[in-house]
Amino acid sequence: MDEHEISKVVVKRLPRYYRYLGDLLEAKVERISSGELSELMNVTASQIRQDLNNFGGFGQQGYGYNVKYLYDEIGKILGLDKVYNMIIVGAGNLGQALANYVKFEKNGFLIKGLFDVKPELKGVSVRGIEIRMTDELPQFIRKHDIQIAALTLPKSGAEVIAPVLAENGVKAIWNFAHTDLHLPPTVVVENVHLSESLMHLSYNLNHMD
């Protein structure tokens, strides 16, 4: 099947498969059936097989899945066999928390720079990464071949900075700002609106049986 035809819902489940398989690897599990994996993940075995069949299946009848092989293959599908240069724009509490999260680098996301507009933050170091001012962005992006930018700015700042990132070659934006960005289709945007996620939690809490 052409990857463009694969449901976004299926793609969104892939990181969860990857996480569970990583845990199984750490526990020295070499193979697992779809039934056993379904019990761990609380997803039906049929759903697991359908999801993985979109990408070739990976299992063997009577054997199940080789955990290491499936982990590596899902990693390739997610693009985790590559290395990405990344910056964070917005060095407040959230931006600094992201910069301090070392697991990003283990998955191939290398944080090369941290930027802000507040002069008092200039030169401050977060896990060895010096905070720079946003007027340095164009030159820095080109010099360090930055592919991904995390935006942890307020709405007004994000709307100003996002086009600058796109114009200077950033191909993907991880948007934490409370706004929807309007950028060329050549730029991939993943929105993480924390307040909306909390509202979903509130809804589920208030509609429990």
Give a written overview of the molecule.
- This protein is α/β, with parallel strands linked by helices and 209 residues long.
- It has two domains: 3-77, Orthogonal Bundle (Arc Repressor Mutant, subunit A); 84-196, NAD(P)-binding Rossmann-like Domain (Rossmann fold), CATH 3.40.50.
- It contains nine helices and nine strands.
- It has helices spanning 8-26, 34-41, 45-53, 67-77, 93-99, 103-106, 137-144, 155-167, 194-206, and strands at residues 31-32, 65-66, 84-89, 109-116, 125-126, 129-133, 148-151, 172-175, 188-191.
- The strands form two sheets. The protein has a seven-stranded mixed β-sheet with strand order 5-6-4-3-7-8-9, sandwiched between helices.
- Strand 7 (148-151), helix 8 (155-167) and strand 8 (172-175) form a beta-alpha-beta unit.
- The chain starts with 7 loop residues before the first helix and ends with a helix.
Short description, anyone?
44% of the residues lie in helices and 18% in strands.
Which terms would index this structure?
about 210 residues, single chain, seven-stranded mixed beta sheet, Rossmann fold, Arc Repressor Mutant, subunit A
Topology:
Layout: H1 8-26, E1 31-32, H2 34-41, H3 45-53, E2 65-66, H4 67-77, E3 84-89, H5 93-99, H6 103-106, E4 109-116, E5 125-126, E6 129-133, H7 137-144, E7 148-151, H8 155-167, E8 172-175, E9 188-191, H9 194-206
Parallel strand pairs: 3-4, 3-7, 4-6, 7-8, 8-9
Antiparallel strand pairs: 1-2, 5-6
